[in-house]
Specification:
Elements lengths: L12 H14 L15 H13 L11 E3 L5 E5 L1 H14 L6 H9 L4 E10 L10 E6 L2 E4 L2 E3 L5 E2 L5 E10 L8 E7 L7 E8 L5
Helix pairs in contact: 2-3, 3-4
């Protein structure tokens, strides 16, 4: 598994689409959306906005928040910084700027939660991901998701495989913000076969 590059704001095309999808899904979740870290400081807010404004000519700038797995799967981690940077980028592309209210909405929306957009492959049934059950493994215990949205209409890839983009939200409480956790996704009971295991180093994200 390859990890994110701190400070990087470039990635491949599908990465930008993935981050945009995360931002869109955030608005559809009940209550606040996910976040990886706590409140942004005034300096962090300024840096996120500047990063987003500087990225308007870059098709992809999600690599810092994206993990690519050996099997072709990937995980996009949504943080207050990434969401604010994306919002600033989108506003700048429209010739606008984020108001203080809009900035606060982006920051507050993710307090206390971590959101993962996980792209997984499977088939031949298009409903292969429908009953997937995610948990985070933290120091020998399992943390259950507070929100699960498994895609029921996966995309057909060029190689013929089906790709489902699933959204998983977990509580931040008890997670090592500067350590590693493991995302474990199991199939439907009673077998609950393991279908994905990915180590996520939370300390590498901003």
């Amino acid at each position: 598994m390859t990890g994110p590059r701190p400070g990087a704001l470039r990635s491949r095309g599908r990465g930008g689409v993935a981050l945009a999808l995360v931002a869109g899904l955030c608005w559809g979740l009940p209550g606040p959306a996910a976040a990886l870290v706590g409140d942004l400081t005034a300096e962090g807010t300024r840096e996120a906005i500047e990063a987003g404004m500087a990225a308007i000519t870059q098709e992809d700038f999600v690599e810092e928040w994206q993990l690519r797995l050996p099997g072709g799967e990937d995980v996009v981690v949504s943080t207050p910084f990434s969401r604010l940077a994306l919002a600033a980028r989108q506003a700048t592309m429209k010739g606008e700027s984020l108001s203080e209210k809009q900035q606060k909405e982006q920051i507050d929306r993710g307090k206390g939660r971590i959101q993962l957009l996980v792209t997984m492959h499977g088939g031949p049934s298009r409903s292969f991901a429908r009953f997937y059950q995610p948990v985070l493994l933290v120091d020998g215990r399992e943390v259950k998701a507070t929100f699960v949205q498994n895609e029921r209409t996966p995309l057909v890839q060029e190689d013929g495989r089906l790709a489902a983009r699933n959204v998983y939200v977990f509580p931040l409480e008890g997670l090592p913000t500067n350590g590693a956790v493991t995302l474990l996704v199991r199939g439907a009971p009673p077998e609950q076969k393991e279908v994905l295991r990915a180590k996520i180093d939370l300390g590498k994200f901003r």
